[in-house]
Amino acid sequence: MNEAWFQQPLFGITITVLFYVGAQLLNSRYKWLNPLFVTSGGIILLLLIGDIPYEAYKAGGDIITFFLGPATVALAVPFYKNFQKLRDQLLPIVIGVGAGLICGLLAVWGIVSLLHGSKQIMLTMLPKSVTTPIAIEVADLLGGTPELAGVFAVLTGLLGSMIGPSILKLFRFRSDLAIGAAMGTAAHGIGTARIMRDSEIQGGISAFAMGLSSILTPLFCIPLIWWL
After folding, report:
1. How far apart are CA 111 and CA 9, in angstroms?
2. Can you tell me the distance from the alpha carbon of 131 to that of 17, in angstroms, rounded to the nearest whole number?
């Protein structure tokens, strides 16, 4: 094959779109299977099997990444549209998000301590439940590994989007408020995009919870860092 074609941005864009279309077809049959999980895994396997350097994919992948910013901001639209309906529920949402963040941070401390992980790993994992760009910056400020923090954030969002709705259903959570706040706090943008397909109100609450958790997480990390 012509290796020069791999260096073109069209290569990265093309394989991403093709994998995503295939992932959507799988998702239409297996609702729990997040298209992002299939797309990312498929691209990684293709690059490994084809011995294609990541830099070749990155030329086109960066163009797609550029649009993640506007797409993430657009998640706030459902909350804005339903703000009047949800205005009286803002305090419970804020309390729920705060409680969820504290539980998440303590869970990281407990798991890493139980497995005898290093302090750097713990600092890297602490911001795992916020959106990836913020997780990278927070981990860097805390003294963790930014690149690994991005991986933890993406994995958290993917797993949360795939198993979160089932767990909430298992424990009989039916309230839009509870489902939206839980998904936005635990699974950030990926989880928000997942439940947006089921309910615009849940998606709006989740988007607000995601934004609020991105603000509160660095603040909540401060006393934990002092303690450590």
Report:
1. 41
2. 23
Least Cα distance to 189 among 161, 151, 219 occurs for 161
Mean pLDDT of 65-91: 80
Measured distance between the N- and C-terminal CA atoms of the chain, rounded to whole angstroms: 53
Give the CB-side neighbour count of residue 92, counting CA atoms within 13 A: 13
Q: Which amino acid is at 93?
A: I
Give the separation between CA 144 and CA 228, rounded to whole angstroms: 13
CB atoms within 10 A of CB 11: 18
How big is the CA angle at 32 (ends 124 and 197), to the nearest 5 degrees?
Answer: 95
**Rounded distance between C-alpha atoms, residue 42 and residue 218, angstroms:** 33
Task: Return the DSSP state at 139.
Answer: H
**Model pTM score:** 0.82
